[in-house]
């Protein structure tokens, strides 16, 4: 299965190593043994002034070599590339290339950011041309006669929507009603977040013109720590203040909105999207009594075996409810509600111990998106396993906003919860790790060859010793963050076949 993409990667890798850069072939270069060309972006060797890299002595391995070539100092290729050059560019971060002018595989743009991260940042800095937010209630707008709305950027639009759907009810004076949430603690939790992510994905596609963009997910099963909390991905920890992000992170300059629910309640006001300070996150610094560990594969399996989507009171006290257990108000191994614990979906929010941990402001942290994409994939597994009829989703008596035909807040035009209680395949997307092989074509034509290939595979590895080592390194590097992006397919095409071609074609570039 991995043969084609790996060979492709190998080919690129060797190509980069074996080239004589045109900029390094003067006699000056050869006599000084230096190949550190200027990067035109800033006029400095290796783009040093821009922090892309620097000119460094190469350090040769001293490990002994086999006896087959009994000479020394007779071939230009010995101790490569020291016969030609003993100083070359060493590129830092996501940069690569002979003058550090290129981006490492999977990164794009002038600063070589991850495509996903670059899109997030663009959304955070682009005012939505289609949507605005109300910054007071209908009554405060004099029952609509004096509209009060304001602009918002595309990322924060989604933060605001998530705040608005989950905010407390303002009852006048200093009275608030907290036991209300149009998207959590009830059956609409899964359809609502599914639609929310799909809408978010579409807005990013419109913003970037990248129709192929899909939201990546973070498979957190059995994670012992926040593996995506590094500066290369969603941000590492600040070296001095453990509650904020490292200054080297893409997200350290982001400001949150809608994080001060108590203040809005006191003022009987809506969040008006004023900036409220940096993202807070301190993974693993949470209350371990409440959340002793992140969810395991066994937790997910056990949760998936619950046959009822929703039960009883249809809220956070529901026993044996798949929804309530996946949401994280029940013990995943028993399905019994337990108010003292935050499990499954909730466990991740609590674990992040910061902006992610308060429902209303949680979408400020981009980890929210990767987390919910994976939660959605578990919902999808349950739908495929239990194949529920629409009637399985409660039609009546669910908490406000959560009945099957209720319109989901705050989307316009209107969509019901029931509309998204269907397989993702019917909504035009799939998850790579759930995709099944196209039965006929795969079974009959591909599988026999794969079986043959797997028999000779070990010999191929042995024969390609050097290639194998490089392959292993690349494989190791990619599998660390190979959280496959959700893959979109068009309804006119055969989805699974396309999925497979894509897989074999070396486009497996997801970084998360
Ligand atoms: C690199 O090569 C130059 C030119 O031959 C030589 O002067 C210099 O000492 C070498 N540096 C190292 C670290 O070998
Ligand atoms: C809005 O309408 C409601 C019901 O008609 C009324 O009770 C209330 O006083 C009105 N509020 C304002 C600010 O006009
Ligand atoms: C999207 O993917 C399709 C199929 O792989 C490709 O033909 C098309 O060029 C891509 N479009 C963009 C904008 O990348
Ligand atoms: C926005 O909300 C904050 C906090 O509720 C409040 O202090 C501020 O005055 C509001 N600003 C505007 C322009 O309404
Ligand atoms: C972080 O965890 C501590 C307990 O370890 C808790 O007291 C605090 O409220 C948490 N902070 C957030 C923002 O969740
Ligand atoms: C859930 O089960 C627990 C333990 O059996 C029980 O105490 C509790 O009353 C049940 N909750 C509901 C809403 O039935």
TrEMBL record:
Task: Return the InterPro entries for the record.
Answer: Di-copper_centre_dom_sf, Tyrosinase/Hemocyanin, Tyrosinase_Cu-bd
Q: Where found in the cell?
A: Melanosome membrane
Q: Which GO terms describe its molecular function?
A: copper ion binding; identical protein binding; tyrosinase activity
Q: Which PROSITE patterns match?
A: TYROSINASE_1, TYROSINASE_2
The record describes its membrane topology as: Single-pass type I membrane protein
GO BP term, pick one:
melanin biosynthetic process
| A single GO cellular-component term on record | perinuclear region of cytoplasm
Q: Where is it predominantly found?
A: membrane
EC numbers: 1.14.18.1
Cite the record's note on assembly: Forms an OPN3-dependent complex with DCT in response to blue light in melanocytes.
Family in the record: Belongs to the tyrosinase family.
Quote the protein name from its UniProt record.
Answer: Tyrosinase
Q: Give the organism, scientific name.
A: Monodelphis domestica (Gray short-tailed opossum)
Gene transcribed to yield this protein = TYR
């Amino acid at each position: 299965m991995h043969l084609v993409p790996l060979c492709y990667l190998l080919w690129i890798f060797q190509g980069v190593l074996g080239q004589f850069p045109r900029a390094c072939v003067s006699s000056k270069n050869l006599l000084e043994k230096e190949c550190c060309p200027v990067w035109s972006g800033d006029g400095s060797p290796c783009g040093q002034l821009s922090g892309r890299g620097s000119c460094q002595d190469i350090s040769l391995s001293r490990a002994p070599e086999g006896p087959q070539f009994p000479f020394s100092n007779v071939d230009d290729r010995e101790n490569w590339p020291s016969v030609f050059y003993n100083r070359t560019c060493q590129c830092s971060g996501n940069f690569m290339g002979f003058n550090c002018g290129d981006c490492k595989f999977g990164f794009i743009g002038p600063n070589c950011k991850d495509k996903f991260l670059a899109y997030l940042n663009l959304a955070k800095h682009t005012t939505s041309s289609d949507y605005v937010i109300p910054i007071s209630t209908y009554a405060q707008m004099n029952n609509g006669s004096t509209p009060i709305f304001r602009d918002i950027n595309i990322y924060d639009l989604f933060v605001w929507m998530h705040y608005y759907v989950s905010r407390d009810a303002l009852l006048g004076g200093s009275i608030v009603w907290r036991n209300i949430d149009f998207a959590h603690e009830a059956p609409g939790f899964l359809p609502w977040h599914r639609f929310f992510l799909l809408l978010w994905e579409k807005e990013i596609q419109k913003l970037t013109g990248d129709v192929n963009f899909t939201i990546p997910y973070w498979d957190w099963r059995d994670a012992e720590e926040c593996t995506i909390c590094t500066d290369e991905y969603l941000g590492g920890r600040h070296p001095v203040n453990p509650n904020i992000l490292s200054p080297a992170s893409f997200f350290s300059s982001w400001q949150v909105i809608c994080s001060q629910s108590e203040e809005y309640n006191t003022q009987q006001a809506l969040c008006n999207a004023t900036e409220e300070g940096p993202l807070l996150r301190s993974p693993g610094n949470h209350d371990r009594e409440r959340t002793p560990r992140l969810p395991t594969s066994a937790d997910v399996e056990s949760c998936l075996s619950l046959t009822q989507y929703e039960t009883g009171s249809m809220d956070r006290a529901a026993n044996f409810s798949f929804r309530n257990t996946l949401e994280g108000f029940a013990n995943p191994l028993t399905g019994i509600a337990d108010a003292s614990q935050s499990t499954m979906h909730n466990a991740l929010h609590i674990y992040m111990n910061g902006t992610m941990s308060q429902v209303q402001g949680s979408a400020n942290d981009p980890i929210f998106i990767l987390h919910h994409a994976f939660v959605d994939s578990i919902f999808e597994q349950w739908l495929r396993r239990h194949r529920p009829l629409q009637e399985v989703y409660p039609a009546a008596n669910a908490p406000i906003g959560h009945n099957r035909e209720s319109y989901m807040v705050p989307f316009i035009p209107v969509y019901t919860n029931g509309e998204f209680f269907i397989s993702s395949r019917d909504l035009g997307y799939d998850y790579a790790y759930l995709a099944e092989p196209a039965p006929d074509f795969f079974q009959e034509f591909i599988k026999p060859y794969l079986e043959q290939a797997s028999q000779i595979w070990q010999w191929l590895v042995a024969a390609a010793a050097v290639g194998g080592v490089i392959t292993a390194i690349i494989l190791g590097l990619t599998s660390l963050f190979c959280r496959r992006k959700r893959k979109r397919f068009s309804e006119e095409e055969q989805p699974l076949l396309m999925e497979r071609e894509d897989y074999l074609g070396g486009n497996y570039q997801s970084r998360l």
